[in-house]
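re: ur question from the group chat, yeah i did fold both. here u go
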Amino acid sequence: MSELLLLLGLFALALVVAHRYGWPLPSGPTKTVLVLCPILPFLLMIVVLLRAYQRADEYWRQQILQNWAITAGITGVWTFSYGFLENLGFPRLSMFTVWPDMGAICALVMLVRRAIRQ
């Protein structure tokens, strides 16, 4: 958890750097590198999560995998459905909304599944 929190802090710092220093630059390789710099801590967070998954026992691996499978399905239905709604005039959503939505959906899936088990 401490690794994940550290990387989350680095991600936040990289976002500030990207917006503060990257966006004002003229187009070119330097701007591209600065704007993409938050991707590195994000990728490292994925590595930390994969390592935690590998350290989990068989039961928790199964639970995690099922939670993410349900989350992926719900997210797929949500994003696909909203694509049709955009054709009806609903506001366009940025792709930046998908990951936070997935996180919220996963948290909700975990809470519902835990409540059902008890």
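okk and heres the other one u asked abt
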Amino acid sequence: MLSAVICFNKPRDILYKLARSKSIWERRTAIVSTAYFIRQGDIADTFKIAEMLLNDDQDLIHKAAGGWLREAGKQDRQKLLSFLDKYAATMPRTFLRYAIERLDKKQRDHYMSMNKAG
């Protein structure tokens, strides 16, 4: 992982640069590196980077971004639900499935029924 501990109190521009990279591994690093921030209660970058990765064509990115959205949603459920309300209809299906994994069945069904990607 990019040394997220080192980046915590510094500008995080490098994460956004990585999220725009042509390299799948650099894009994945961008979202995975937010794990430390999430544990510190700082979820803003996770949501911003996940939004940047919404149109990524790689399943590995969908899994990582959806999974970290799910984890950030544990800190702020309403922020996760707002994100899903805005993007569930067009998110890649794998991305959505990972993001909604911890929601109750009724909510999961609701967001999956909105999704037009599958």
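fwiw on the second one: Residues 63 and 95 are 6 Å apart (CA to CA). The radius of gyration is 14 Å. idk if thats what u expected
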